[in-house]
Structure formats: C-alpha cells, structure tokens
Amino acid sequence: MSIRAETTKKLSWKHALWLLPGPVFYGLFRLAFLWPSFTENVYSRAIFPVVNQGVSTATGVLPFSLGEFLLYAFIAFVIVFVVLMIVHAIRARSQWWRVLIRRVIVLLSVFSCIYMLFVSMWGFNYARQPLAKTLGLDASPATFAELETTCSALTDRAVALRSQTGEDADGVFLPAKSRADIMTLPRAAYQAAADESGVRFLGGSYGPIKPVLYSEGLSYANITGVYFPFTGEANANAGAPDLLFAATCLHEAAHQRGFAREDEANFLAYYTATYTDDTDVQYSATMLALIHAMNKLHAENREAYYEIRSRYSDGMSRDLALNAQHWQQYEGPVAETSVAVNNTFLKANQQQDGVKSYGRMVDLLIGMWRAGDL
C-alpha cells in the first residue's frame, strides 16, 4: 500500500468518527420513549425551555427568519459540495473511488451532526408524556354520541364567534388586526393560558412568529407553517388565507414551546385561543378544531355530518369556500411530494400514524368537552 493510500485510509477513518453522533442520538431518542415521564420532567420542562427561550429570544430580534436563510444556505452548500465532489473524483482518475468515499463520509457526517442537534434541541419532545395527561383530560376512546356532541358544540361556538367578526367586500372573514399584529399574539395567549390554567410551562419568553419570505413555495408544498428547531423560530406562510392564519401561528407557537406532536399542537392552538379576548383569533382556532372534528364525523356518519353542517352560518360557508379555493390552485406533484415527505418525517419520529395523527386532535377536544370546558 502506498503512503498516499495509507494516508487516505487514515483520513477516512478519522472522518468516519463524525458519523457516530447521529446513531448515538437516535439510540437515545428511542430510549426516551421508554420513560416519557422522565423525558417530560427533565428535558421538556427543564432543559428545553431554558435553552430554547434563550435561542428564540436571540433570533427573535431579527425582523426576518434566520432559519429560512440557513435552510437556503444549507441547500446551496449541499449542491456545491456534490458538484465539487464529482469534479475532484474526475480529476483523481484511477483514485476516483477514494475521493468519493471520503467526500460521501464527510457529507454523511454533516447530516449526522445535524441530526444530533435536531434531537438534542427539540426532537426529544416527541417522547414526552401525552398532553392529555399533562392537562388532566380524559382522551380515552369516545362514543359516537360524544363525537357528535363535540361537533355540535364547536359549531355553535363558531357561529357565535363568526357573527362578531369583520368581513371584506365579498363577505369573507377579515381580521381587525394586521398579520404583523396577529403574529405577536401567541406569546400573550400562551402566557394567559399558563397563568389561568396553572400549567405554568405553557408560558415563557419566546420570539414572535415570523413570516416566511418565500411563502409561495410553502403554498405549493401545501404547508401553512414551519418550525425551525435550530433557531427556535416559529414561521407562518404569509400567503395563506385569513381563516386559519391565527390558528397556524398558535400551532407553530406550540412547537416553539416543545410540543412536537402535530395533533397536540393543533389542540393547543384551540386551547390557548380560549384564553384570549380576541374574537378573530378565537374564531380562527375554533374553525381549525371544527374542521378536524367534522372530518372525523364525516368518516363515521355522513348523515350526522350533513345535519350539523347545515347549521353553519353563511359567513362560515363563504370562509371555508375561499380557503378551499385558495389551496386548490396549488394542487399538484409538489404538494403530493410534500405530504409524502411529511408523512415519512412523522413516522421517523415515532408518530406511527403519519399524517393521520393530525386527526387525533379530536380525542383531546372530546376530552375538553368531557371536562365541560369546550
């Protein structure tokens, strides 16, 4: 073996050591699911809030999403790295395979370290105890009558709230506050919920929700919001319709506070909205809850679904129609791919229902109805 080949071998093993963080933290991640109470009390309520509030507060002073720019920079880095890898492999001629091995190891090491940061900075929250236990809600399997009653109660609430909201010239829901103001509301909503419910860790000092600069891209991917765990930033699709915009902000704020599961973040959007005095925010979050609950009712009994659906106000129907019309224009392969990627991501983080886990929000809503707080 030549001196050059031996040097290459040593460098490869040295680089290979950077592959270890990913597998090690994946093992720790899986172990965390065995002790959800320990994960809840040690990581989610103690370590995570301290670290993330510091990171979120620091990045919160920026008027733009740092996470979005880091994402673009990383994509550019990967593209340039792969191009240079190919060029160097061609120039190496007979030693091309050694160059490729070294470069691939380096790239995989980068992904390994990124995964380590993801798990340590946020991912462990997937293993925390169920939110139903934290809030003391009975989220056990429900009867059809309980589901129907919950849908009915949410419909009555939505109708009442919609009668108090503003409209545009087309009779569609128009919030009184600007989008910029709406994105600052989650902090107060979560703090109010923490103070009044006694669940203190719902509060805290976090940065505001930020609009995504390239929101058009999110729309094509059928994404209303995204959380960047590496910067502690909760981001919203600025191009999404008004109907669920405030609810999306509350949903992403839940992720920012360590609630990783999508169904629980959706529920917290509704839960925290009930502690605000803003009718527009309450309406947006109630419509989010109603859509999920009614979708489940439709799957169970269409006759019951249409009976309750007939009680929607004209304003609610117009709002839903515009919302559906908006997203229809973005239907296509990009949206389908995004759903598939999101499904894979959820399953990789032990959310075995994949995108279907969003529907389990209804169990928490029924639990809230059982407690008499819906």
Tell me about this structure.
The structure is a single chain. The chain is mainly α and 374 residues long. The protein folds into 2 domains: 3-127, no CATH class; 131-370, no CATH class. It contains 17 helices and 3 strands. A 3-stranded mixed beta sheet has the order 1-3-2. A hairpin with a 4-residue loop joins strand 2 and strand 3 (233-236). It is globular, with a radius of gyration of 23 Å. The model is unreliable at 1-9 and 353-358 (pLDDT under 50).
- Work out the count of structural domains: 2
Measured distance between first and last alpha carbons = 74 Å
Biggest pleated sheet: 3 strands, mixed
Number of helices: 17
> What is the H/E order?
HHHHHHHHHEHEEHHHHHHH
Mean pLDDT: 89
| Largest sheet: spatial strand order | 1-3-2
Taking all Cα atoms into account, the compactness measure Rg is 23 Å
Instruction: Give the helix/strand class.
Output: mainly alpha
Sequence stretches where pLDDT stays below 50 over 5 or more residues:
1-9, 353-358
Give the percentage of residues in beta strands.
under 5%
Quick one: overall form?
Answer: globular
**Beta strands, count:** 3
**Percent in helix:** 55-70%
Any chance you could write out the topology, listing elements then pairs?
Layout: H1 3-16, H2 21-32, H3 36-60, H4 66-92, H5 96-121, H6 131-135, H7 144-162, H8 179-182, H9 185-197, E1 210-211, H10 215-220, E2 225-228, E3 233-236, H11 245-256, H12 262-273, H13 279-300, H14 302-309, H15 314-328, H16 333-348, H17 361-370
Parallel strand pairs: 1-3
Antiparallel strand pairs: 2-3
